[in-house]
Protein backbone atom coordinates (compact mmCIF):
# COMPACT_ATOMS: atom_id res chain seq x y z
CA UNK A 1 0.00 0.00 0.00
CA UNK A 2 1.26 3.46 -0.90
CA UNK A 3 2.21 5.63 2.10
CA UNK A 4 2.18 9.39 1.31
CA UNK A 5 5.47 11.18 1.82
CA UNK A 6 5.50 14.79 3.00
CA UNK A 7 6.51 17.03 0.12
CA UNK A 8 7.40 20.72 0.14
CA UNK A 9 5.73 23.34 -2.08
CA UNK A 10 8.94 23.55 -4.09
CA UNK A 11 8.90 19.80 -4.69
CA UNK A 12 5.31 19.92 -5.90
CA UNK A 13 6.07 22.85 -8.20
CA UNK A 14 9.00 20.97 -9.73
CA UNK A 15 6.77 17.93 -10.20
CA UNK A 16 4.13 20.03 -11.99
CA UNK A 17 6.74 21.56 -14.30
CA UNK A 18 8.16 18.12 -15.12
CA UNK A 19 4.64 16.80 -15.72
CA UNK A 20 3.79 19.68 -18.08
CA UNK A 21 7.00 19.21 -20.07
CA UNK A 22 6.55 15.44 -20.17
CA UNK A 23 2.95 15.67 -21.40
CA UNK A 24 3.73 18.44 -23.91
CA UNK A 25 6.41 16.43 -25.70
CA UNK A 26 4.32 13.26 -25.59
CA UNK A 27 1.27 15.01 -27.08
CA UNK A 28 3.25 16.87 -29.75
CA UNK A 29 4.89 13.61 -30.78
CA UNK A 30 1.68 11.59 -30.67
CA UNK A 31 -0.53 14.12 -32.47
CA UNK A 32 2.25 14.87 -34.97
CA UNK A 33 2.60 11.22 -35.90
CA UNK A 34 -1.18 10.91 -36.27
CA UNK A 35 -1.06 13.90 -38.66
CA UNK A 36 1.73 12.31 -40.72
CA UNK A 37 -0.09 8.97 -40.78
CA UNK A 38 -3.40 10.46 -41.94
CA UNK A 39 -1.66 12.65 -44.52
CA UNK A 40 0.14 9.66 -46.03
CA UNK A 41 -3.08 7.62 -46.09
CA UNK A 42 -5.41 10.23 -47.61
CA UNK A 43 -3.12 12.41 -49.73
CA UNK A 44 -2.11 11.18 -53.18
CA UNK A 45 0.88 13.52 -53.08
CA UNK A 46 2.49 11.70 -50.16
CA UNK A 47 3.63 8.17 -50.98
CA UNK A 48 5.04 6.09 -48.15
CA UNK A 49 5.90 2.43 -47.65
CA UNK A 50 3.76 0.42 -45.23
CA UNK A 51 6.69 0.13 -42.81
CA UNK A 52 6.77 3.94 -42.58
CA UNK A 53 3.06 3.97 -41.74
CA UNK A 54 3.82 1.37 -39.09
CA UNK A 55 6.49 3.70 -37.77
CA UNK A 56 3.86 6.39 -37.13
CA UNK A 57 1.45 3.93 -35.51
CA UNK A 58 4.23 2.83 -33.16
CA UNK A 59 4.80 6.33 -31.81
CA UNK A 60 1.07 6.92 -31.40
CA UNK A 61 0.86 3.77 -29.25
CA UNK A 62 3.95 4.90 -27.36
CA UNK A 63 2.46 8.32 -26.54
CA UNK A 64 -0.93 6.90 -25.55
CA UNK A 65 0.77 4.43 -23.21
CA UNK A 66 2.49 7.20 -21.28
CA UNK A 67 -0.53 9.56 -21.23
CA UNK A 68 -3.20 7.01 -20.32
CA UNK A 69 -3.65 8.55 -16.86
CA UNK A 70 -4.30 11.93 -18.48
CA UNK A 71 -7.11 10.52 -20.63
CA UNK A 72 -8.55 8.80 -17.55
CA UNK A 73 -8.56 12.14 -15.69
CA UNK A 74 -6.15 10.94 -13.00
CA UNK A 75 -2.86 12.43 -14.17
CA UNK A 76 -2.85 15.27 -11.62
CA UNK A 77 -4.51 13.34 -8.83
CA UNK A 78 -2.52 13.04 -5.60
CA UNK A 79 -4.24 9.74 -4.82
CA UNK A 80 -2.95 6.33 -5.83
CA UNK A 81 -4.38 5.18 -9.18
CA UNK A 82 -6.92 2.35 -9.21
CA UNK A 83 -5.23 -1.03 -9.64
CA UNK A 84 -6.83 -2.06 -13.00
CA UNK A 85 -5.93 1.24 -14.69
CA UNK A 86 -2.46 1.32 -13.14
CA UNK A 87 -1.74 -2.26 -14.20
CA UNK A 88 -2.94 -1.53 -17.73
CA UNK A 89 -0.67 1.49 -18.11
CA UNK A 90 2.32 -0.20 -16.51
CA UNK A 91 1.98 -3.18 -18.85
CA UNK A 92 1.71 -0.95 -21.93
CA UNK A 93 4.71 1.08 -20.81
CA UNK A 94 6.91 -1.97 -20.35
CA UNK A 95 5.94 -3.14 -23.82
CA UNK A 96 6.51 0.26 -25.45
CA UNK A 97 10.35 0.13 -25.69
CA UNK A 98 10.21 -3.29 -27.34
CA UNK A 99 7.72 -2.00 -29.92
CA UNK A 100 9.46 1.21 -30.89
CA UNK A 101 13.02 -0.14 -30.94
CA UNK A 102 12.15 -3.11 -33.14
CA UNK A 103 9.48 -1.38 -35.21
CA UNK A 104 11.28 1.91 -35.82
CA UNK A 105 14.94 0.89 -35.90
CA UNK A 106 15.48 -2.79 -36.61
CA UNK A 107 12.71 -3.57 -39.09
CA UNK A 108 12.04 -0.63 -41.42
CA UNK A 109 14.90 1.77 -40.92
CA UNK A 110 17.77 -0.70 -40.80
CA UNK A 111 16.78 -3.92 -42.56
CA UNK A 112 14.72 -2.13 -45.21
CA UNK A 113 17.23 0.68 -45.78
CA UNK A 114 20.15 -1.77 -45.89
CA UNK A 115 18.45 -3.85 -48.59
CA UNK A 116 17.50 -0.74 -50.57
CA UNK A 117 21.01 0.70 -50.30
CA UNK A 118 22.52 -2.53 -51.56
CA UNK A 119 20.14 -2.52 -54.52
CA UNK A 120 20.93 1.14 -55.19
CA UNK A 121 24.66 0.44 -55.27
CA UNK A 122 24.02 -2.34 -57.77
CA UNK A 123 21.76 0.06 -59.75
CA UNK A 124 18.74 -2.14 -59.25
CA UNK A 125 15.31 -1.36 -57.92
CA UNK A 126 14.67 -3.16 -54.66
CA UNK A 127 11.10 -4.31 -54.15
CA UNK A 128 10.58 -6.33 -50.98
CA UNK A 129 8.38 -9.38 -51.32
CA UNK A 130 4.91 -9.33 -49.70
CA UNK A 131 6.10 -11.92 -47.20
CA UNK A 132 9.11 -9.82 -46.25
CA UNK A 133 6.94 -6.74 -45.75
CA UNK A 134 4.37 -8.70 -43.74
CA UNK A 135 7.13 -10.05 -41.52
CA UNK A 136 8.50 -6.57 -40.89
CA UNK A 137 5.02 -5.37 -39.93
CA UNK A 138 3.93 -8.25 -37.70
CA UNK A 139 7.04 -9.28 -35.75
CA UNK A 140 7.29 -6.03 -33.71
CA UNK A 141 3.71 -6.40 -32.49
CA UNK A 142 4.20 -10.05 -31.55
CA UNK A 143 7.19 -9.13 -29.39
CA UNK A 144 5.35 -6.07 -28.01
CA UNK A 145 2.34 -8.20 -27.06
CA UNK A 146 4.64 -10.74 -25.41
CA UNK A 147 6.26 -8.00 -23.28
CA UNK A 148 2.84 -6.60 -22.31
CA UNK A 149 1.57 -10.04 -21.29
CA UNK A 150 4.73 -10.70 -19.26
CA UNK A 151 4.19 -7.43 -17.38
CA UNK A 152 0.50 -8.22 -16.85
CA UNK A 153 1.31 -11.64 -15.40
CA UNK A 154 3.86 -10.11 -13.04
CA UNK A 155 1.42 -7.39 -11.97
CA UNK A 156 -1.41 -9.86 -11.37
CA UNK A 157 0.85 -12.19 -9.40
CA UNK A 158 2.25 -9.35 -7.27
CA UNK A 159 -0.50 -6.67 -7.20
CA UNK A 160 1.18 -4.83 -4.32
CA UNK A 161 4.05 -3.92 -6.67
CA UNK A 162 1.82 -2.00 -9.11
CA UNK A 163 1.67 1.71 -8.27
CA UNK A 164 2.63 5.25 -9.18
CA UNK A 165 5.93 6.48 -7.79
CA UNK A 166 4.94 9.86 -6.35
CA UNK A 167 8.49 10.44 -5.15
CA UNK A 168 9.35 10.76 -8.83
CA UNK A 169 6.37 12.98 -9.67
CA UNK A 170 3.86 10.20 -10.32
CA UNK A 171 4.07 10.61 -14.08
CA UNK A 172 2.96 7.04 -14.77
CA UNK A 173 2.46 3.63 -13.16
CA UNK A 174 5.16 1.03 -12.81
CA UNK A 175 5.75 -2.51 -11.53
CA UNK A 176 8.45 -2.56 -8.88
CA UNK A 177 9.32 -6.27 -8.93
CA UNK A 178 12.01 -5.58 -11.53
CA UNK A 179 11.07 -8.70 -13.50
CA UNK A 180 9.28 -6.94 -16.41
CA UNK A 181 12.06 -4.38 -16.57
CA UNK A 182 14.76 -6.99 -16.91
CA UNK A 183 12.82 -8.84 -19.61
CA UNK A 184 12.33 -5.61 -21.56
CA UNK A 185 15.96 -4.60 -21.11
CA UNK A 186 17.16 -7.92 -22.54
CA UNK A 187 14.80 -7.73 -25.55
CA UNK A 188 15.65 -4.10 -26.29
CA UNK A 189 19.35 -4.71 -25.78
CA UNK A 190 19.38 -7.62 -28.25
CA UNK A 191 17.40 -5.58 -30.78
CA UNK A 192 19.75 -2.62 -30.51
CA UNK A 193 22.86 -4.78 -30.86
CA UNK A 194 21.33 -6.21 -34.03
CA UNK A 195 20.45 -2.72 -35.24
CA UNK A 196 23.93 -1.32 -34.66
CA UNK A 197 25.47 -4.39 -36.31
CA UNK A 198 23.35 -3.81 -39.41
CA UNK A 199 24.25 -0.11 -39.35
CA UNK A 200 27.95 -0.97 -39.33
CA UNK A 201 27.46 -3.44 -42.17
CA UNK A 202 25.58 -0.78 -44.15
CA UNK A 203 28.33 1.76 -43.50
CA UNK A 204 31.05 -0.65 -44.64
CA UNK A 205 29.06 -1.48 -47.79
CA UNK A 206 28.59 2.18 -48.66
CA UNK A 207 32.26 2.94 -47.96
CA UNK A 208 33.48 0.16 -50.27
CA UNK A 209 31.12 1.22 -53.07
CA UNK A 210 31.21 4.99 -52.52
CA UNK A 211 32.82 5.76 -55.88
CA UNK A 212 30.03 4.03 -57.80
CA UNK A 213 27.38 5.46 -55.52
CA UNK A 214 28.74 9.01 -55.86
CA UNK A 215 28.98 8.68 -59.61
CA UNK A 216 25.39 7.52 -59.87
CA UNK A 217 24.12 10.24 -57.54
CA UNK A 218 26.21 13.39 -57.97
CA UNK A 219 24.92 15.04 -54.82
CA UNK A 220 23.09 13.82 -51.75
CA UNK A 221 20.29 16.15 -50.62
CA UNK A 222 21.19 18.10 -47.48
CA UNK A 223 17.74 17.34 -46.06
CA UNK A 224 18.50 13.62 -46.29
CA UNK A 225 21.83 14.08 -44.52
CA UNK A 226 20.16 16.07 -41.75
CA UNK A 227 17.40 13.49 -41.30
CA UNK A 228 19.94 10.65 -41.14
CA UNK A 229 21.92 12.59 -38.52
CA UNK A 230 18.80 13.20 -36.42
CA UNK A 231 17.81 9.56 -36.78
CA UNK A 232 21.19 8.47 -35.47
CA UNK A 233 20.60 10.77 -32.50
CA UNK A 234 17.22 9.15 -31.88
CA UNK A 235 18.92 5.75 -32.02
CA UNK A 236 21.32 6.87 -29.29
CA UNK A 237 18.35 8.02 -27.20
CA UNK A 238 16.68 4.68 -27.79
CA UNK A 239 19.79 2.91 -26.52
CA UNK A 240 19.66 4.93 -23.31
CA UNK A 241 16.12 3.77 -22.56
CA UNK A 242 17.46 0.30 -21.81
CA UNK A 243 18.71 1.80 -18.57
CA UNK A 244 15.23 3.06 -17.68
CA UNK A 245 14.49 -0.50 -16.60
CA UNK A 246 17.90 -1.23 -15.09
CA UNK A 247 18.41 2.01 -13.15
CA UNK A 248 16.29 3.93 -10.67
CA UNK A 249 17.41 7.31 -12.06
CA UNK A 250 13.98 8.05 -13.53
CA UNK A 251 14.39 11.85 -13.42
CA UNK A 252 16.76 11.67 -16.38
CA UNK A 253 15.01 8.81 -18.13
CA UNK A 254 11.63 10.57 -18.15
CA UNK A 255 13.06 13.49 -20.13
CA UNK A 256 14.53 11.06 -22.67
CA UNK A 257 11.24 9.16 -22.95
CA UNK A 258 9.22 12.30 -23.60
CA UNK A 259 11.63 13.48 -26.31
CA UNK A 260 11.54 10.25 -28.35
CA UNK A 261 8.09 10.68 -30.02
CA UNK A 262 8.76 14.40 -30.40
CA UNK A 263 12.06 13.86 -32.24
CA UNK A 264 10.56 11.16 -34.44
CA UNK A 265 7.86 13.62 -35.55
CA UNK A 266 10.25 16.52 -36.15
CA UNK A 267 12.65 14.29 -38.11
CA UNK A 268 10.11 13.28 -40.75
CA UNK A 269 7.61 16.14 -40.63
CA UNK A 270 10.15 18.36 -42.41
CA UNK A 271 9.92 16.37 -45.64
CA UNK A 272 8.88 18.59 -48.54
CA UNK A 273 5.86 16.59 -49.69
CA UNK A 274 4.32 16.62 -46.21
CA UNK A 275 4.98 20.32 -45.75
CA UNK A 276 3.50 21.14 -49.14
CA UNK A 277 0.26 19.34 -48.26
CA UNK A 278 -0.01 20.95 -44.84
CA UNK A 279 0.66 24.45 -46.20
CA UNK A 280 -1.58 23.94 -49.28
CA UNK A 281 1.30 24.64 -51.67
CA UNK A 282 2.00 22.92 -55.01
CA UNK A 283 4.20 19.88 -54.79
CA UNK A 284 7.87 20.92 -55.21
TrEMBL record:
The keyword Disulfide bond does not apply. The chain crosses the membrane at residues 21-40, 52-72, 92-121, 133-156, 183-204, 225-246, 252-270. Keywords: Membrane, Transmembrane, Transmembrane helix. This is G-protein coupled receptors family 1 profile domain-containing protein.
Amino acid sequence: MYIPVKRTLSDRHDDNVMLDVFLAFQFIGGIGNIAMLLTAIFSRRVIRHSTWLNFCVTWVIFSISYTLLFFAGQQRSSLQTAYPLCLTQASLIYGAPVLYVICTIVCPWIAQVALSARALILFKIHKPSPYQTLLLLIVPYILWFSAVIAALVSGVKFPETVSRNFDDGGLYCEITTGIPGRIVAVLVGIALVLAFTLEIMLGVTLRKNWAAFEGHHSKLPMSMIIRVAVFVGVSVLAFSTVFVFLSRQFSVSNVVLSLLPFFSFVTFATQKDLLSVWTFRPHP
